[in-house]
Model the fold of this input.
Amino acid sequence: MNRDNDNAEYQPIRHIHCSDGSQLLLASTSGQQYLLMPMPEEASRAAPRHGLLASPSGDTILNSQQYACYPTGDSKMLAETLQAKPDAREAAGMACDIMEALLHLQLQQLALPNLDAEHTLVDPHGQISLLGQHAAIADDSEQQRHNVQQAGQLLYQLLGGRPYSSLALQKLRPDLDTELLQLCQTLLDCPGPAIAITRTSLAQLQDWLVRQQRFIRTEGNQQAALEQLLQRMRHSPDFPALSQAISAINHIGNADSERLQVLAEIILKDFSLTNKLLKVVNAANFSQFGGSVSTVSRAIVILGFDTIRNLALTLLLFEHMHNRSHAQEVRDVATKALFCGLLARSLARRSRMQEAEEALICGMFQQLGELLCVYYFRNEYRLIHKKISAGSSAAQAVQHTLGLSYATLGASTADMWSFPERIVSSLEPYPPGPVRQPQHSAARLRMLGNLANELTHLLTGPSGIRAGQVQPLLVRYERACVLEANTLHEVITETQAEFANYLQEWSGEATPQGNAQHLKTAALGPHPDSQHPAPAAELEASYVHTTPATTSLLSSGIQDITTTLLGNYQLNDLLRMILEIMYRAVGFDHVLLCTRDPRQNTLHARFGFGEDTAALLPQFKIDLQQQDNAFCIAMERNVDIFIEDASAPAISSHIPRWYRQLDLAQTFIIFPLVLEKRKIGFLYGDKKQAHSLPLRPDELNLLKTLRNQALLAIRQKQN
Done:
C-alpha cells in the first residue's frame, strides 16, 4: 500500500511529540486510526515478525514525508495509559513484554530506533507491542545497549508514575519491592552486553511475577470462606487419613539418601494402594522387564522415584474420590481430572519438556477444587449447577456459592498437603489474552496445566462450537508452546488411548459412562489433514512407561539399519533412513545430512527432514576455511558438538553469522562423519528454542550408533 496525500486517504489528527525528540503522526482513514512513523532516510532492515512487535500495514506520503502506517486497533499508546498508574505486577508484566521483544531483536543483531512510552502500544489485555519494526537498526551494539536503558526508563515511568529523571525511584516509591528497584537500576545502567542483561532481566521479572502472583489471598471475605470450607473438610471422617498420606509422600526430600525406601514404606502401609499400584504397573510394563513386577521397591527401581511417587499420589486421590462414592457426578469430575492430567503430560512429552511427570499432577489438580466441592460439598455443587442452568457463568456461580473460585480452593488444599510451590502456583488461571513464553520450570508447569485444562474444557463442552475455538486457543498459546493444529489432534488421540487404558485398570468399568465415555471419543473438530492416526498399539503408551519413546524408536531404528546393511542397499536411501529415524525418535525440528565439496572446501546440506527443508538446503553452507565456528570445530577435531543455547555469551561468538541470519534454531547437535581423517560431512539436528532438547546419555549413545552406522555404510560402498 503506497498512498499519497493527494488521495486524502489519511487524514492527520495531531502530531505527537515523543520524549526522545522524534515525532509521530496520528491519522485516520476509513474510520480507523493509525500511528504514522517516519521512514528512515537510509535503507533499513525490517525486523522479523514477532507477536510483541507491531507490524505496519503499509506506507504513505504526507507533505513529502514518507511514513510507515501502524494500525492502532483497540490499543493505545502506553503514554496515554500511564495516568491509570499500573500496580507493580502490571508494570512488571509490561516490562516482561518489552524485554522479550528486545531479546528477539538482539538475537537477530537488531535494535529499535525509538523505545519510549509514545512508541509503545498496549492492548486492552495489557499486552505490549513496540513500534519501529520497519526501521530496525542492524549490527549496532551501542543502540542495543541504548534500547536496554530505554526499557529501564520505561520501567521507571511505569513504577514511579512520572517520566524518568535523576530522582531515585526509591524516593518516589519507598514501598516498592527492593528486587524491582535493583532490577530497574540494572536496566538503566546496563553494565554488560545488552543481550546478557536482557536475558537475565527477563528471567528475573518472570520469576518475580510467579512469586508475587500467588492467588491464595489472605484477606477479606474470601479468606473467611476458605477457612470455613477447609474446616468442613477436616471434620469429614475420611479426609484426615487422605491428607496424612499425601503429606507424608510430599515430605520425602530429594536430599534424603533413603528416599526410595521411605516411599516404599509409605505405599506399603496402604494395602489397597499397594495392590492397585502393582496392578497398574504390571498391566502396562511387565512385558518390558521379562516378568511381572511383584514388589513396590522393584517398581521404584525400574520406573524411577518420581514416576512411582506421582502414580501413588494420583491413585490416592483418584481412589478416594472415585471409588468411595458411586454418584455419577463424582466419577465425572474425577475422570475429567485424570484426562486433564494425562493430557498435560502428553503435551509436555510432545514439547520435549523435562517436567512431564510433574505436569501430570498439575493437570489433574486443575480440577482439584471442583473435585473437592463435588465430594465434600454436594449441596453447594448442585446449587452451582442450578445457577449455571439459570444463565450464570460457571465462574460467577462458583464464586457466589462458595465465596471463592475452584482454583483457589484447589491450590489452598494442595498447599495444605505440602505440595511444592511450583505445583501450587501452577494452578493459577491465566487472565484473558496471549500467554507469555515461560522462562523457567514453574512457569512451564503453569502453562501446561492451564493449556490442558482449557483443552479439556473444550472437549467436554458443546461439540458445535469446538472447531471454531481451536484456532483462537492456538493463537493464545503460540508464544508459550509451539503447537500446530495437526499436532494438537495427535496429542489428544494419544491421550485418549492412555485414558481408555487406565480407566479399565483403575475402575474396572468395561463400559464407562458420562464424562469418561465422552472424553474417550471427543474431538476438537475434523482432523486438519488426511493423515491416518498412528496404529493403536503405538498410541497406547503406558502411563508409567519409563523407557522413553525416544530410546525405543532409536533402538528399533538401529535394528532396521543393521538389517539393511546386511543386504543390498542404495547409500542415499540408507542415509535418508538414518535421518528419518533421528527426526521421528528425537523430535528434531530439522535433520540434515551435509557433505563436503572438496573443490570449494565447503560443506553443503544435501537432504533432510523438517519444515521448509527444500528452501533451507541451498542456504545451509559452511566454509571450512572459517575455523572458529562450531561446525568447523566439529569437523576439524572430529568431535560431537551439542549446543543447548546458541545465544549464550560463551557460545554466540562460535555461531557463524549466516546461521544466525537464518533464525533457524537455538539448540542443535552435530555428529561429524570422518573416515580415517577424511572429512566427509556431518549429521545435524536442531530445535527452535534453547534448552528444548534434554537428551539423556543413553539417547546420545544411540544417536552416535546411528552415526557410526552411516560411516559403516559409506565405507562399505567405497570398498
Summary: The chain is about 55% helix and 15% strand. The longest strand covers residues 678-687.
